Amino acid sequence: MAGALVYRFSDPVPPMAEVGGKALSLMRMAHAGIHVPPGFVLPVGFFAPWLDTLRSFPAWGDFVAALDRPAAPGSNGPGDPAVRAACDALQGHARSLAWSAEQREVLGAALGGFPTETRFAVRSSSPEEDLEGASFAGGYRTVLNVSPAGIEEAVREVFASCLDLRVAVYKRMHGMDARQVHMAVVVQVQIASDVAGVGFSIDPVTNDYDHAVFSANWGLGESVVAGTVSPDLFTVDRTRRQVLRRDAGRKENTVELAAGGGVEVRSDERPDRLTLDDAQLHALTTELERIEVLYGRPVDVEWAFAGKQLYFLQARPITTHLDLPEDLLTVPGAPRRLYWDASLSVQGMLKPMSVMATSFLHLLVGKLWQLLFGTEAPGGVGEAAVVVRHGRMYVNLSNLFTVVDQGQLVKLLLSTDAIAARILEAVDVESYRAPAPGLGRLAWRLALHAPHRVAVLAEALALPERSRRRADRIAEEVEGRLRGLEDSPLPLVPLAEALARVLLPAMFDELLPRVVAAKMAMSRIRQRLVRVSETEQRLIDRLDQSLPGNVTVTMGLELSEMARLLPAGWDAKRIEQELTAGTAPSAFATAWRKFLGRHGHRGPREIDVAAPRYREEPRLLFEQLAQLVQLPTSRLPDAIHERSRREREQAAQALGEGVRVLGRAVQRRFHHYYGVVEALGGLRETPKFCMVTAIDVLRTRLLDEGARLVAAGRLDRPEQIFDLTLGDVGSPDLDLRARGAERRLDHERLARARELPRIFDSRGRIFYPPPRPAQAGRLTGHPVSPGIARGPVKVLHTPGEKPLRAGEILVARATDPGWTPLLVSAAAVILEVGGVMQHGALVAREYGKPCVAGVEHATERLRDGQVVEVNGAAGVVTLVESTS
Predict the structure, then answer these.
(1) What element of type H or E holds 214?
(2) Residue 284 phi, psi (nearest 5)
(3) Phi and psi for 322 in degrees, rounded to 5?
(4) Whole-angstrom distance, CA of residue 848 vs CA of residue 787
(5) Low-confidence ranges of the chain (pLDDT < 50)
(6) 122 pairs with which residues across the strands?
(7) Disulfide-capable partner of 320 in 74, 119, 208, 845 (CB 3.0 to 4.6 Å)?
(8) Measured between alpha carbons, how far is 737 from 725 in angstroms, rounded to an integer?
(9) What pLDDT was estimated at residue 28?
(10) Where are the alpha helices (DSSP H) in 34-100?
(11) Helix (H, G, I), strand (E, B) or coil at 566
(12) pLDDT for residue 78
């Protein structure tokens, strides 16, 4: 029986559920020939009697009951302070649990394989710890430099940490059942290291796959992991084995083994000396890559040098990186491609679209390429200018750089995403420029197929009213032709192609040239006709507000008008019930049916064919109506729109009178260009409206097809069809369930990312806006967790010093695992000391919170209540306002 209650590192690797993530990692590395300190693991079964005993105490019932209750307002954990009290009571019981004879026999036999003078490190190894997506960030205990006589007490202490409040909070934050308690314990030889630290096989800030990053300090690695020092930081180019950065940290102290057991903190006299030389960095990088291959994905590790011997103390999958699909990558060392995520910047889509939406948009992009250039679109990601992959639409900027100037692209982005424009402006274009066969000939191909578009543009600029009437007729005709395909007998792929044939010429040959004309007219007003003073600039900005005929604005105005027809006090549930029962006011019911007939095919994420439409899920509309019912008449959207329209007309009149001094010809040109804006500016949403109509027609057919496949036993639900491509559905012998699961993998990989980047490259590097120039009211440090957050400061010297409210910015000298509940509530974190593996930084990255470390004297320079903006990617803290 003893064999089932202990595993030596040399034993065959057992299941994760028995030994936990940390022990499993150590055993896997040992079997792969990677140097780990020898040791053994006491598995989950070893502690089963202790857990049975704990479940018999009343405190266990309190623990379970507290976890089942909602968190108290303003608390930092689930059910806190009730959970805290239950956890404290259970930990007290755990520290007094008795060892059985069998447990002592097993432990004694395991220790018998080591010399009596051996010192040990005793570490937790929960089955839930160090998983992909859940590192637990130091919530469990580690006891160092333990003699054989002290092993029992250390094991019991580490076991008790599975009932710590921090563990319960972390589990609930990650969707785990905090009532399920499991623990294994690792006992391994203690390494008296000369230098130690942590390493990442990718850059944790930039996400660059080809950069290894190491933090290091003298002595044990606990000072680096716990964040009690600002360590040295090294970045290594893995492909060339070149050290890119050597940033000396202050290394304020070291952690050393104490003679009588445990550890002690000492001051160090080597703050200016780097802890690692190039030979050590080379060895670290080589072994780190071996471990990455072992895991099959990026890892972070804890390592230590004792003399010339390198040891690895821990390894786990990195939980917070952007994991790019294979077809977007280039091989290490090859020229990189630069991508812009247009679906994020243009459509604001924060998560990937469905597989089917990707398939249809891919078809549209291919057909559009043929329309614009008269040739087949390039097939591969490397040759294309625009690629639709994995629920996103990417622009291959490396290829565009061969035919479009960087400045022109920056100007283009400014109209859609100013942050992306700032990023692109700072990119080294030459390092990403990639000759693309055939792209250089696109200009004349575009011109060859552009005469009609040029004619439409010219008509729009010359005769805007007539051009608008024609545009409205075209949009109405296109909508009718698209709807006419709803009952088409065409198979699915031919149907999608037919939708494209109707949609794309209308959008790009007819509607978009008119939208461009309105933008050109605004540009000419701004640049040529008005002496742009600050006052005139404000007036010009009003010229394209509340323009007539905007289909999206119209939808909001119709909602506002419907709200006026509802009795005061009706909430969303009441509106739905009255409509369903047929007892709603008749005028409202009529308007509702008319609204759904015109706008029911729209909804959130509407360019994704998998997204439900308003007519299918109208709850959001009911909620909007309920909000509008509560507003006074003057604050309803239609009233606001009317005021905005009057302001536009007044601005046009004032500007027209102002340019009179420039001559009557200039005044006539101003009024003409304003007429172009007024007539055609409202068309800006019409192309998308037509596109959403086409998507709705396709969705209707797909749901019908999905129901047919369910009846045929090939799918379980009609909606599963959205996990497939257009081509998949027409394959009669394909296992559609299996193919759908396979198709979803890359989409789900991107969906796990907390934030998709605007601009990134084919080796995973994410680009962020450059920091603003240094100026008063700014503090600088090291970027350790990207993102931007704004809020009031709360300076804490200890976790329990004062409450930290949700949305406040935590400022501390450093943090350890005891701060974890506070980090859950913080909007961002500012630390005086620490690096990328400082506890606060690690947890901040896990929760997607901005964090800046190494901000000198932050706890003295910042005061409670000051509002700051934390830019975690730039490493900048900006003071927004002072305390009153």
Answers:
(1) strand 211-218
(2) -60, -45
(3) -90, 120
(4) 8
(5) 1-2, 73-79, 130-136, 817-818, 883-884
(6) 143, 187
(7) 845
(8) 12
(9) 96
(10) 48-55, 58-68, 82-94
(11) coil
(12) 45
pLDDT of residue 18: 93
d(CA 403, CA 157): 65
State the DSSP H helix or E strand holding residue 795, giving kind and residue range, or none if neither.
strand 788-795
Q: If we measure between CA atoms, which residue out of 391, 397, 320 comes closest to residue 349?
A: 391
Task: In whole angstroms, give the CA distance from residue 426 to residue 432.
Answer: 13
Asked if residues 29 and 130 have their Cβ atoms less than 8 Å apart, the reply is no
Spatial contact of 829 and 840, defined as CB atoms under 8 Å apart: yes
pLDDT digits (tens, 9 = 90+) for 599-615: 999 888 889 999 999 99
pLDDT at res. 79: 45
pLDDT at position 772 = 63
Residue 206 phi, psi dihedral angles, 5° rounding: -90, -15
For residues 81 and 165, the answer to whether their CB atoms sit within 8 Å is no
The neighbouring-strand residues paired with 869 are 790, 878
Kindly report the number of other CB atoms within 10 A of residue 189's CB atom.
15
CA atoms within 13 A of residue 487's CA, in its CB half-sphere: 2
Question: In a 3-state reduction of DSSP, which class is residue 395?
Answer: strand
Two tokens at 80? 């806190």
**Could you give the CA distance from residue 791 to residue 282 in angstroms, rounded to a whole number?**
42
Task: Return the amino acid letter for 267.
Answer: S
3-state secondary structure 265-322: EEECCCCCCCCCCHHHHHHHHHHHHHHHHHHCCCEEEEEEEECCEEEEEEEEECCCCC
82-94 helix and 48-55 helix, angle to the nearest 10 degrees: 130
Q: Give 245-271 as a 3 state SS string.
A: EEECCCCCEEEEECCCCCEEEEECCCC
DSSP annotation string for 342-368 = HHHHTT---SPPPHHHHHHHHHHHHHH
Angstrom distance (rounded) from CA 222 to CA 47? 27
Kind and range of the H or E run holding 102: helix 101-111
CB 34 within 8 A of CB 286: no
pLDDT of 477 reads: 97
Cβ atoms 339, 394 nearer than 8 A: yes
Per-residue CA distances from 862 to 816, 858, 882 (Å):
21, 6, 9
Which tokens in the block code for residue 791?
């809020």
Task: Report the Cα 302 to chain-centroid distance in Å.
Answer: 26
Amino acid at position 143, single letter: V
**Do 512 and 450 meet the contact criterion of CB atoms below 8 Å apart?**
no
